[in-house]
Design goal:
It is a single chain. This protein is α/β, with parallel strands linked by helices. 24% of the residues lie in helices and 33% in strands. The model has no long low-confidence stretch (mean pLDDT 92).
Amino acid sequence: MLISSVAEHLAPQQTGYTMNSPLLFSLLDKFNEETYYEILDVNPANQFQLDYFSRVHCKLFLPGCGQQLLAMNLDEYDTKTKINRALVKNLQLYKNKKASLNLIMLWDLPNYLDPRLLNELNQFLLPHSTNDVILHIYIQTRENMPELPGQYTFQGDNKISVENNSVKTIPCPMYYKEALQKILSPFVVQKGVLLSNGLQEYILKRQ
């Protein structure tokens, strides 16, 4: 397993509730030892994540760029060139050395990004992705959501540990399927399931 990360150190172990993520683990359970995969996880590197993917022949891209993306103001990045430069810096994916991503894990970050920035992020990632790349996300379905994205880490028994980083709440965009597909085109929803904590889990595939 190769790791491409801008994190200076592994994130400490998080505490919090655990949840099922049936679509994600159903997908990952199909990964086999003979195939080489390239995987982007926007979370910082952590030991649970490294342990989980140690069984797979893969390269992990772990930019830990969630906070940097949240801080991007499109009024400041007002041209395609400025946006692209910022995304290159935050994601560490370069035009002259393109990745071939098979799986992109954005967790719940799409709920917090300006829809225009989410679209720009999507368009930026496409040239670094295979034709059959899979996008995995969690979409908030309640009127209000935590003020900040959660911290998601792999646990044993096909569980995900969730740490909410703020007790405050903010209005939720409550994306429905059609709106989500419009923003994330050419990705379309392949599967969706409503989890008990109010998150809608989606697997999207590039068309």
